[in-house]
Amino acid sequence: MKVRTIIQIVLAVVIVGLGYLLYDNFKKDIDFDSEYTARRDACAEKLKVIRTLEDAYKETYHVYCGNFDTLINRLMTEDSLLVLKEEYDTAAIIKAGLTIHDVQNMTSDEAREKKFVVDKRRYVKKLDELRAKKDFKDLMVNDPKSGLQRPITDEEIRNCRYVPGYGKNKQFNLVAKQNEGGVWVFMSWIDFRDLFEDSYKVDQYQDMNSVKIDTILLNNKIAAINEKTKKLLEQNPDADPVYTCWRVGDTLKPETRGNFE
After folding, report:
1. Which one, 57, 158, 170, 237, has least CB within 10 Å?
2. What is the rounded distance in angstroms from the CA atom of residue 30 to the CA atom of residue 36?
3. Rounded-to-integer distance, Cα 109 and Cα 136, Å
4. Tens digit of each residue's pLDDT (9 = 90 or more) over 202-260
């Protein structure tokens, strides 16, 4: 075989090898971005529900709650919100020889003056009031089958504490406290390393067929975020850190936004 032919074969092999390495690296980047985004969105949906529960708890009990059992159980079981609801006094309407239809044709002031419409005071669950609002988007979830948004179920509210992808084996962190200024704050979060813990475990056991992401890329992203925070704090010690987690709320200031928004 001629030397030239051998060189051509070697070059072809090298080119193919380099092409594969480039493709493999490119695919790892795509897989990482795809999985990173998918887990962010799944966490965001649950963190929005947790924020809604915390806001409802704060409005009802005037404090935030740092315990999922208390937060969810009280909001789902206690009638704690006093509301006024207009109701027809059917006895008064019948006694006057009228029907509800007759009262509906009256002005509001006339119906109230004649005591055909009265305000009834009753207690309701704050959570029920929120769920009754059709435009309250934070209690809407994406249906996994249809892909469309629908109202959240009671079971999904109870399970909002659990990190997507881990069943009931991993919960979001939750803290509620008064800050140095005496203002109540809360924060719920999941660290990136905990969120991608399955990938680290897979690497540990060398089961490469099950790796969900390239953990080197994750480590690089975490390092980049930490470096950004370091530079921010060097420039301004009072600057807000850039968290290496998906979170809603903040323990440093009265903030209820999520860093995924």
Report:
1. 237
2. 10
3. 31
4. 554 444 444 567 788 888 889 988 898 888 888 888 777 788 999 999 988 888 989 88
Strands 184-191 and 245-249: antiparallel
* pTM greater than 0.90: no
- What is the b/e burial string over 49-79, where b = at least 16 CB atoms within 10 angstroms of the residue's CB? bbbbbbbbbbebbeebbbebeebbebbeeee
Helix 3-61 to helix 215-235 angle, to the nearest 10 degrees? 60
Provide the residue ranges of all domains of the chain, joining segments of one domain with +. Answer: 31-73+131-249, 81-124
Length of the chain: 261
| Residue in the structure block whose two tokens are 């315990």 | 67
Q: Which residues contact 21 (CB under 8 A, 6 or more apart)?
A: none
